[in-house]
Amino acid sequence: MDAEPGLSDQYRMASPWPVFVALGIPIAELGIIFGLFPLSVGGLLLFGGSAAGMAFESGYAKTPWRGLFGVAVPLAALGAAFVFTAIDLPDRGIAIAAAAAILAAAGIAGTLFSPTEAPEY
Amino acid sequence: MEVNGQLALTVLMGLFLVAVAAWLARVENWRSYTPVAGGGAFGQKESYGSEEKPSGVIRWLTTVDHKDIGILYGAYGLTAFAVGGLMVVVMRIELIDPGMSLISNTFYNSLMTSHGITMLFLFGTPIIAAFANYLVPLLIGADDMAFPRINAIAFWLLPPAALLIWAGFFPLPNVIPAQTAWTMYTPLSAGAGAGNQANAGVDLMLLGLHLSGVSATMGSINFIATIFTERGDDVSWANLDIFSWTILTQSGLILFAFPLLGSAMVMLLFDRNFGTTFFAGEGGAILWQHLFWFFGHPEVYILVLPPMGIVSYVIPRFSGRRLFGFKFVVYSTLAIGVLSFGVWAHHMFATGMDPRLRASFMAVSLAIAIPSAVKTFNWITTMWNGRVRLTTPMLFCVGFVSNFIIGGVTGVFLASIPIDLVLHDTYYVVGHFHYIVMGAIAFAGFAGLYYWFPLYTGRMYQKTLGKAHFWLSMIGTNVTFFAMILLGYGGMPRRYATFLPQFATLHQVATVGALLLLIGQIIFVWNFVQSWLEGPEVEDGDPWNLRDSGLYTAEWDWYDKKLETAIADGGETDDAAEPMLTDGGDVDDAADE
Asked: Which pTM value belongs to this model?
């Protein structure tokens, strides 16, 4: 490792997102297992939003908005599976689907209303 | 009432999310992003460099630097070690007396369950991740881990995991601690029968364990990607250091073992909460044991391989010569990794499984002793005729080898079906595996903590206290766990809060040993904290005088450069401080031979 400053150390050493990705997962798990609707939705929103924010921050996505769809689609599928298949846990499925819907709505709102071009300096 | 509860929870959750969003908007300078790929936008000058981490608590909450995350893992692991250790002190004090005296039998069961899970999942795995995070990128010449943010996520999953695992001990209404033991055998853990294990405390513990598994899996993917793709130009497979080899092997084991545990625990949670019957009935109980031990035995090697790597790394530094048979130590690591997936049913010899299957598992279990012995002989031959310097880390390494031999040889006997049928579920087993987890794994952890102390603190620990820590730990370990082996020969069954009076003496001996261990660890904490704050500063990158014997390594080179390029921030150096007796190197006048 080269300790010469300014060369190898150019990448960011701080990111606010991981801690919230990590917090979203247990909150959602608790909500889904114990059937607590607000925790399920809130935990999944925290997880999905932070994951999208992190993908944007680290340069894997140009905007955070499509990342939200990326989380919403599998969640919607999971929610549907909980409601319509033999799993048969409709309340929890609806909670997961609700989180997916909110994430997707945020993604649509972001795509429509946020400035798409990089701000001018 | 029901609706009001939901409403309150919704409002609280909403407020929490708004607070998170507000905090994010505040802490994050939204225009400061340095795009990873493509040219950075001109005019955005606020890109972070390594010197521009946020300050204070925010720095630790937001860091994605592998060294910071390593420190976080270390602090977490040592905290869990203290919690799990204090739990067992209470249990050992209870066991001074044959009857139920200090704590209730159910509380004993709770402590026992939590002690096991805490030590394996909240101390063992994280303390290894601490060394791996801090050192592997330095050793292989990488700038950081391959996925720094996933690295941070993996760590931050652990504090919620600990809170969930310990949830039963907190004053929550209607939640009691799990009393399933760490193996969580069904039907007890499925909440069946008249017991109290249908309680939500067990669900919370399972969720916490699941989270710690997700964390370990994320970490392992990261290490595999890092070691495969981020090695420096001068680091090839041929000269990859032994510690990174063991981390790579361990990560492979985690990748195959932990997801299985996670799936099995989700199935168990479904059995408990949603009426599925995966583990119902006799077949279900055996299914759980197979699934659990298919994870559980590789877990043993997940915990022991990297400590073996630390020992293989440190012993040569204080023997004045290179690791004897380096290639064979690597091969035996890989062999243990492969074989570890073929021995799980030796935990189930007494279940009445097919004798032909049993014999094959016995054969593989005995076979795994061979690569383990290869390593042991290589450590001994490395020291043989070497210039041995008995510094504190080296003492812990020698203690590791000694305890590993006792723990390993008792294990060979257990691998043999007829002996296992006699000793199964006795204290012999407890003594055997504690020789490995405390006598070997924890010892290697201490060896690493002392050896790299100057690297991560910039200071030197106190030699006398370090040696007191070692000797109390070494004697304490052997007194405690040898007494347990004898108890097992006598037929004392494990997991009981009470016992027949004939076992009292050996139980008292074991308790004395545990108290010696407690005193040793108090000394360790004192030494660790005080030396970190006030120890003499290390002034060059070779505190162990490794250059003289040609055993200098990459991480100290990095440290040396860091010292050279450090910019003084004013203030006075504290040379007038009382000199402490340290363990060799330039900060110290007393030679430590």
From this structure: 0.91
